[in-house]
């Protein structure tokens, strides 16, 4: 086989951080493929290999010390630092030979004479010694590698060494990228040698591991070194699934750290001009595992073809990654949250362009625009997208969701008890989205001052548009392929926190371009209203996170008056509403579903509800929703098809209507946990993204102080907001609500919805999100 390339060494040169909006940092590591010393790349004409050895430079060392000193255990830190510095300096004094063999272990030093006497016999001698002595510990990824690494001798000598290594049977034969792991394998020469004949060593394949490198001379796994824990900023291995882009960077400078013996020279380095390519990936924040931090690895090589080959091969592999979007529709709400919508999009847009995801961006100019676009877009056009991205808050996402579902999702209205006042003639069979109803909905929304629809005329034109186009192209809902993404820019961002585990635009953007997928329950909330002609008029709204009446409705109404305050308006409005302490009379009927998990007590009186609440708070400790959540992935027992498969708990044989009646400070129905920065565990810590249940939380009228205590519990991590006598918590697939006397309004995903009579149900996993659930 023609041996076309070189064995190249790569030096980790710089770790720079730049802040993203004060929340996430962008990390950039630069590696260099050349004869520098730390990372080896063995390049064959048909296959590529490299080994990366990360380095902790002096800056990293100093930062590490500073961080340690900053911690509260000062004395301990100082002792450790002293130990560290002593060990560090002693390590720095270790000699190494002129061929840059980095020997740091005594057992290896014993072989120095072999090495110095006859370099070319060194690998063979060393390997033999390893076998004979059984000293694999020092040989592991260590000694022999260095024989390979040390090919920075120019000319004839290098060729000789190469030939010798090949003669030793160390030719790399395993194709890279086969295992969907990349960058590439740490070639481990001595691992399996005992089972093989001496002299016939073959490399075993290991995932790339970055060996931290102290002082330019010592290969040490720093995470265990000197009893000081160090987590390198660069990933220790990168899976192909974690790479979102690879691109050629053209000719440019690469900073190479110097590798002279003296430690002070580590600060020195030089820029070398060469061809470069960058692998864009991410690492996880060590404090917050859900948060992804961009990590770019830039490689340089003097030969452009080498870079091209790498880029092409990596891109070819990335193309085979399933589920990655290619074309997205993006809505940007410029005034969302603190008015950062556009800036947020600008910050993440490069991630999309690097990943070669096409985006059609619509910056909204008014409330309701995203709804109009989503509801009027033809199915044919929608089919050309892999999903829709909302750059904004929960309310904005809700608008897009409603625009998407209203004209397309055909489902029965929620079930109601037989005495529910407005039983619709075809209760259970009616489909919510016929044209007449959409028009009726329009007028109702106008009445509510809900801003989704600008004018009935405009909506009328949408309907005719749908009529002609929809017949041509089908757009099934639920739709496995089509997904929603949220780049958080709002005031609360509860949906994004629950689906990605963090409130970070970079993480959300990565979840989108990497094609993550998680199913999300959606609540259908129907307001029933008598028209002047005495007809019952339903008005449907979909909610992805929370619908609340009373306190929650009053807060949203009040906060709208203070929108100019930005996100602080919720605190201000919340305080005002809390001080008023208003309760509202209502009757709630909910479907009580028999299930092992949720039927915790047979008592259904007031006290019984208390017991249930306590037990369910215990449950929450055990079954928190997370990435690959077992509860969300559980298949329902009932094998139902079509829309019925979305309401598995309604099909359960053991269902009955239970009721609660009285004065309530609030009535809330949470689809998901609704975690946010104010309520770190959310309203319901054990709510799941896709279990087909609503969490009905009824707060009965109670003394002011008790209510304050309940609210305080909400703001605490590990608090028990449901563990109160006046709190009822029911896990249900459907409920109805009827108010009497003075009325509040409903707050549906942060938007006002007026309803005196309402029925609701949840559709399990109705939509898919570009997210993977929280890493908890
Ligand atoms: N260009 C616009 N101007 C004014 N309002 C808009 C515009 N675009 C969208 N909206 C409306 O603003 C409402 C609130 O938006 P959004 O949810 O993004 O912000 P927020 O209320 O600050 O955040 P959160 O919902 O997370 O608390 C949405 O319901 C949407 O209808």
From TrEMBL:
Q: Which PROSITE patterns match?
A: DAGK (PS50146)
| UniProt-recorded Gene Ontology molecular function terms | ceramide kinase activity
Which ranges carry the DAGKc domain? 323-529
Might you report a single GO cellular component term? membrane
- Which superkingdom, per the lineage? Eukaryota
Q: Name one GO biological process term.
A: ceramide metabolic process
Q: Sorted alphabetically, which PANTHER family does this protein's record hold?
A: CERAMIDE KINASE, SPHINGOSINE KINASE
Q: What is this protein called?
A: DAGKc domain-containing protein
Which organism does this record belong to? Vigna mungo
């Amino acid at each position: 086989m023609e041996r076309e390339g070189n064995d190249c060494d790569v030096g980790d040169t710089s770790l720079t951080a730049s802040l993203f909006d004060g929340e996430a940092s962008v990390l950039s590591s630069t590696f260099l493929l050349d004869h520098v010393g730390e990372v080896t790349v063995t390049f064959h004409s048909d296959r590529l290999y490299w080994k990366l050895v990360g380095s902790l430079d002096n800056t990293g060392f100093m930062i590490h010390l500073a961080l340690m000193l900053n911690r509260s255990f000062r004395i301990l830190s100082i002792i450790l630092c002293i130990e560290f510095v002593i060990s560090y300096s002693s390590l720095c004094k270790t000699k190494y030979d002129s061929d840059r063999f980095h020997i740091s272990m005594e057992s290896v030093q014993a072989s120095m004479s072999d090495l110095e006497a006859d370099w070319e016999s060194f690998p063979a001698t060393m390997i033999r010694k390893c076998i004979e002595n059984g000293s694999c510990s020092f040989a592991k990824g260590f000694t022999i590698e260095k024989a390979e690494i040390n090919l920075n001798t120019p000319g004839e000598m290098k060729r000789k060494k190469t030939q010798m290594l090949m003669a030793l049977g160390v030719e790399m034969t395993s194709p890279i990228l086969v295992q969907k792991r990349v960058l590439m394998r740490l070639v481990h020469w001595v691992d399996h040698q005992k089972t093989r004949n001496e002299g016939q060593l073959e490399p075993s394949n290991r995932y790339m591991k970055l060996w931290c490198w102290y002082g330019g001379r010592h290969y040490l796994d720093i995470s265990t070194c000197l009893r000081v824990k160090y987590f390198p900023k660069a990933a220790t291995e990168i899976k192909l699934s974690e790479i979102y882009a690879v691109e050629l960077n053209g000719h440019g400078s690469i900073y190479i750290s110097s590798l002279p013996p003296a430690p002070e020279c580590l600060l020195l380095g030089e820029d070398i001009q060469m061809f470069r390519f960058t692998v864009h990936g991410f690492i996880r924040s060590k404090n917050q595992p859900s948060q992804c931090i961009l990590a770019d690895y830039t490689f340089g090589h003097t030969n452009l073809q080498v870079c091209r080959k790498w880029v092409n091969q990596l891109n070819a592999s990335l193309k085979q990654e399933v589920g990655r979007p290619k074309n997205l529709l993006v809505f940007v709400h410029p005034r969302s949250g603190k008015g950062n919508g556009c800036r947020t999009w600008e910050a993440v847009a490069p991630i999309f362009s690097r990943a070669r995801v096409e985006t059609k961006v619509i910056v909204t100019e008014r409330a309701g625009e995203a709804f109009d676009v989503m509801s009027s877009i033809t199915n044919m056009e929608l089919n050309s997208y892999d999903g829709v991205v909302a750059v904004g808050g929960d309310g904005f996402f809700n608008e897009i969701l409603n625009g998407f579902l209203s004209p397309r999702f055909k489902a029965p209205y929620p079930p109601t008890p037989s005495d529910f006042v407005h039983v619709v003639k075809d209760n259970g069979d009616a489909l919510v989205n016929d044209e007449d109803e959409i028009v009726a909905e329009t007028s109702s929304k106008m009445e509510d001052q809900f801003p989704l629809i600008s004018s009935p005329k405009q909506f009328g034109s949408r309907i005719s548009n749908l009529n002609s186009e929809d017949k041509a192209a089908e757009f099934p809902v639920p739709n496995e392929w089509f997904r929603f993404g949220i780049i958080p820019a709002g005031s609360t961002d509860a949906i994004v926190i629950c689906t990605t585990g963090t409130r970070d635009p970079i993480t959300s953007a990565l979840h989108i371009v990497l094609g993550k997928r998680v199913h999300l329950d959606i609540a259908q909330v129907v307001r029933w209203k008598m028209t002047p002609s005495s007809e019952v008029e339903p008005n449907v709204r979909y909610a992805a996170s929370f619908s609340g009446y009373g306190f929650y409705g009053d807060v949203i109404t009040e906060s709208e008056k203070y929108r100019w305050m930005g996100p602080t308006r919720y605190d201000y409005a919340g305080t005002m509403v809390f001080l008023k302490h208003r309760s509202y009379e209502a009757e709630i009927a909910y479907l009580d579903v028999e299930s092992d998990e949720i039927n915790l007590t047979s008592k259904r009186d007031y006290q019984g509800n208390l017991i249930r609440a306590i037990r369910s708070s215990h449950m929450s400790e055990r079954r928190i929703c997370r990435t690959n959540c077992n509860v969300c992935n559980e298949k329902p027992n009932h094998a139902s098809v079509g829309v019925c498969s979305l309401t598995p708990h309604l099909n359960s044989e053991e269902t009955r209507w239970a009721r609660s009646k009285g004065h309530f400070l609030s009535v809330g129905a949470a689809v998901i946990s609704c975690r946010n920065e104010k309520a770190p565990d959310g309203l319901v810590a054990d709510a799941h993204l896709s279990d087909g249940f609503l969490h009905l939380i009824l707060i009965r009228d109670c003394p002011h102080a008790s209510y304050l205590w309940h609210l305080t519990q909400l703001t605490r991590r590990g608090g028990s907001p449901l563990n109160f006598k006046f709190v009822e918590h029911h896990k249900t697939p459907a409920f109805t609500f009827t108010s009497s006397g003075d009325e509040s309004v409903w707050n549906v995903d942060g938007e006002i919805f007026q309803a005196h009579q309402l029925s609701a149900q949840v559709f399990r996993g109705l939509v898919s999100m570009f997210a993977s659930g929280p890493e908890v």
